[in-house]
Amino acid sequence: MTMSVVETLKIHDAAEVEEAVKAALAADTPLEIVGHGTKRAIGQPLAPCRALDLSALDAVRDYEPSELVLTVQAGAPLADVTSLIDSKNQEFAFEPMDTSVLLGTAPGRGTVGGMIASAFAGPRRIKAGAVRDHLLGATAVSGFGETFKAGGKVVKNVTGYDLCKLIAGSWGTLAVMTEATIKVMPKAESEATLVLHGLDALTANRAMTLALGSPFDVSAAAHVPASALSHGGVLAELDGGRRGLTLLRLEGIGASVAHRVGSLTSALQGFGGVDVVGEESRRLWAAIRDVAPFSAAGPLGAWAVWRIVCPPAAGGELGQALARETGGDLMYDWGGGLIWLAMPPASDAGAGRVRARLDAVGAHASLIRAGEDVRAAVDVFQPQGAGLAALSDRLKRSFDPRDILNRSRLVRSVGP
Amino acid sequence: MSLKMPEPDRAVLDRRTAIIADLRRIVPGEGVIDSAAEMRPYESDGVTAYRQPPMVVVLPETTAQVAGVLRYCHDNGIKVVPRGSGTSLSGGALPLADGVLLGLGKFKRIREIDFDNRVVVTEPGVTNLAISQAVAHAGFYYAPDPSSQIACSIGGNVAENSGGVHCLKYGMTTNNILGCEIVLMTGEVLRVGGKAAEAAGYDLMGVITGSEGLLGVITEVTVRILQKPETARALMVGFGSVEAAGECVARIIAAGIIPGGMEMMDKPAIHAAEAFVHAGYPLDVEALLIIELDGPGVEVDELIDRVEAIAKGCGQATLQISTSEPERLLFWAGRKAAFPAVGRISPDYLCMDGTIPRGKLPEALARIRSLSEKYGLRVANVFHAGDGNLHPLILYDANKEGEMDKAEAFGADILRACVELGGVLTGEHGVGVEKRDLMGDMFSEIDLNQQQRVKCAFDAKGLLNPGKVFPTLHRCAELGRMHVHGGNLAFPELPRF
Questions:
Q1: Which chain A positions have a beta carbon within 8 Å of B211's beta carbon?
Q2: Parallel, antiparallel or unpaired: strands A147-151 and B379-384
Q3: Among B262, B388, B439, B487, which is least packed by CB within 10 angstroms?
């Protein structure tokens, strides 16, 4: 997939990672950090490098359900780990996205390390936070070729700098994580989803804001406009041609969910009829989480896809403007705070038009799906202002002074 | 004070008069305090055992003034110690003899309340409780609630990543902060994050939170606010042994219940609290659990029943369930007053703050008991049982020769035991100066060097709050040196495919 890989080093134990980084430093050949490789097509194209394959670091080190703590090696398959904690009725509360739907990679693949490095939180982010909020500790090898420990193995800890926050979402550019301790949470006993039909983006945004500002503990709020429902799938079936879905999820013990369904339904009276979905609720939210309407296998599979994060109450207006100006198709999660925008094919994925609107509302955009030539031509991740960019660069160098890890994946090199 | 702080810079102290004059040009009016009497309140924070008058106190009112002071100090090689309300329990705001004490107390304005985006944008000197009060009329509150919330500032909360009794369910400060304005030691003003759920690039807000004033000075914070739960009720359960109480906590979590708060007290703490507030605590039990459930009424009622059944299955000795709001608050009154209550039965006490894996509680308490005998000092334990955060209160008398040193050594042994049991040195109070010299018990030199390199990315001259958190200070150039020699390194052949 990545054309620039010259060879692959298969790691068998954590000590080899340190050796591999030292070797890479000595040879001045950067490393691409890979688990199952499901997200290799995200980011700026890499400089020529060796791939460091961590998928054999797949052990579960420790799992104490009553401590809410799980320690695994970075290469552990996410699917296996998810079934393990599911067997104790626990989960990652941040609902990690399965990117295979959007990227067209093999389903059910992906490692815990990849989940942490990419940090794509699902619908419950508005209530439970993201992987950053659940990564308690990590062992990693820096670009100095040194193995260091960050954080701890308990749920409450303020000892030293919280380096875990930097590692989560860093796309493997700061250190090669070999082991992670993650907080797990009990799964809700039941859930129900309230469904509003036919709202425009502004009205849907208002309905979601009302719900999220209510005491009813809404755990997810999404809006899928009619245009995004024209491609089939579980969401389209639910819509039944009624021009757009607005979904609000309630989770908890049965009696509580039933009570809140009633209260929230009354609170939403001004927005038209409310349907309640019980059984199907999980499938609906998996489709929202994985951006199923823009699936690689669907009719928009060839379109580029942007992930835009903005203040939630600004989402409706921003999304409407983007749809109008770009001819793109979009859907909203996080109560309006996350917009997925599919763009008709273009050599720059419409980057200029997308980003022109973002600064004014405090939003930022990343290009999650696009061909390599497009990714080489645009800033995949939102460029930062001079001060933040310089600080980020100093941070990168404080972990990886020779830029040996995932070189150029985050920031486009503006070469000669 | 046996604590070793960075050697005062004689050249800086010699220029004190000129420096004060320069600072007055940056912060005019009464914002620069240099008289010994007026500086006295700033000599220590919540850890009153450590005292040090600063060279000068500066109380800026604007971000531009903060930037001006920091730029001036950066250019002139002067150390700076930031301070919020001065309630730190780890000595994080302990001044330096040759340093500027930069107080943010004048940043007292809430700048914006945005109910639609569920955030408050505030200046750092606003107290934790004032944020909740400002949004209470609309049913909102700010979730993290350190016990000092009436006094502690939100800027200090960010610096320390403060917790509170509700953080098992609602998270610490770091889980409830979206952005800030921060001034670096060079005077550069940066905006990090904002009203969106996450910012672009590395999670700078995440590493700034809990950095104990070593990375920058925060001049504005954007916090998340939540709707208040409809109702809350509490159970108070006494047990004949700490083991039984610990088992009850484990079973509640294993049953998938995350209470709003779950606190444990041991016998000495129960007795001290009861004598102080008369909350009706049972006096013949070894451990007392206070478990609070919050949410919609129907949910709380059902969970109370479930927790009651679990407690009975663990052989509870006493059990009371609050039936009214005053009763719930009474259950809490003793726990919330545990520190002053212990203060009444002893001339002095040290409050420790380690975290352990919850299952290790009986072992931890047994070790604390045997250390108590070894040092000949009494100890009372209060415990955030849900998240394993232990607060042993060591009783001593500072007027007795050598007793404070003994208490400190006892505390250090407790924290080492926490680390040995798989835990950490501090769960919510911070490292500061108090636990600084124990960092080597938890982290290797490589770990600490990596943390200090991060410090270098923010403050290359090491002028911001030096002497805190890290037991040994290194120059940034030394930390950044790469010890790999190109081509000469022997490395084994790696397996390939």
A1: 161-162
A2: unpaired
A3: B487
